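REVIEWER CHECKLIST
Item 1: Sequence provided? yes
Item 2: Single chain? yes
Item 3: Sequence as submitted:
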Amino acid sequence: MSKAHSVAELEELMLRYQQADPVATTELIRQVSPLLLRFLTSQCGSRADAEDLLQDTWLQIHRVRHTHRPGEPVLPWIYAITRHVQVDGYRRSRRIRSHEHLMDPLPESFRVARPAPVVAPDFDTMLAVLPPSQREVVRLLKHTGMSLEEVARATGSTVGSVKLKAHRAYEKLRSVLGRKQGKGAALGHQAQGNYDGV
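Item 4: Structure as written out by the authors:
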């Protein structure tokens, strides 16, 4: 499915969702949820937390669905809501942590073995070197295929600011990865191609 067709399809699904079409609602959630879950997981680092935030995001989208204007791109509108839900969730978790009390450690006999940590995918490992604002822009451009204009709308910034963050992110990734490895060079060329084409 081409990106143009996908955008038109999402807009059609959103319009039908606003009209309380249950089939369109299910299909919109099916198509968009994997993108949002990947984005939220990358932002908060925990799949469980990301799944909770995803549910909160869909609840918020449902509450404000009438505010989406037909003809406007759907993904930037959805990502803007997702970012607000994520920020609210972060603030809420900070408030909860500030009220928690430290407990004495459990005796060895009561401790449960922790599972081995999940190894982050290469893409996430590479992006970890970037500041959060650059990381967010690269994720939106690469994971969702959003245009610069759509990312600007989703992040509440200008196209120029998005271009600058993307450019700085790609430069940082090139410097960190170096040109020694073919993989690092390929990412640099791909990133430069995406930036040059905008």
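Item 5: Key structural point noted by reviewer: The chain has two domains: 1-98, 120-198.
Item 6: Recommendation: ____
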